[in-house]
Design brief:
184 residues, alpha+beta, L-fuculose-1-phosphate Aldolase, 2 domains, four-stranded antiparallel beta sheet, two-stranded parallel sheet, 7 helices, 40% helix, globular
């Protein structure tokens, strides 16, 4: 199956990645998805200079299957098994690339494009004592605040549950997701 045109994903990635107001030191990640495939920034690449071939192509059916699997409670064992499944979901020819540990989360969002950044301003909010309260004052019901949780699959699982609950309450997904002590 031919790869879709990723020029818009590259443009968005470079736009945010080259602006220190959004991304410091090449951090953050971006993705684009079709019905069957997800393209996400490869680990170790810089958003500011990323090229289309630096995105990792993954099989979305294999990513969705990860939500059904029961992983160990031990964080190290869990993340090792999650990484195995994540790497196994890469499309043929992508074996040299490593997807972000947050890939399952990108796949879960309804939107075709996902931009995950760590802007200093938002990190100030996400790491502040009154962060959640201030986020609600600024954005009202548009924002979903996720309390601090370990990164990786545990974060993805926690966000997924919170978004599902938000959708039940509001009939739609949140416009903004802020992860305490993490990013936007």
């Amino acid at each position: 199956m031919p790869a879709p045109d990723l020029s818009e994903l590259v443009r968005i990635s470079r736009l945010f990645g080259s602006d220190p107001e959004y991304v410091l030191g090449g951090g953050g990640n971006t993705s684009f998805k079709t019905a069957s495939r997800l393209f996400i920034k490869g680990s170790g690449t810089s958003l500011a200079e990323i090229a289309a071939e630096e995105f990792v192509c993954l099989d979305r059916a294999l990513l969705r299957a990860m939500w059904e699997r029961r992983y160990p409670d031990d964080p190290q064992a869990r993340e090792a098994e999650v990484l195995e499944d994540l790497l196994a979901s890469r499309e043929k020819g992508e074996e040299a690339k490593r997807p972000s540990v947050e890939t399952p989360l990108h796949d879960f969002f309804d939107e075709a494009y996902v931009v995950h950044t760590h802007p200093s301003l938002v990190n100030g909010l996400a790491c502040s004592a009154r962060g959640e309260e201030t986020a609600r004052e600024l954005f009202g019901e548009r924002v979903l605040w996720i309390p601090a949780v370990n990164p990786g699959f545990q974060l993805a699982f926690t966000v997924r549950r919170a978004i599902e609950a938000y959708r039940k309450r509001h009939g739609r997904s949140p416009d903004i997701l802020i992860i305490q002590n993490h990013g936007l």
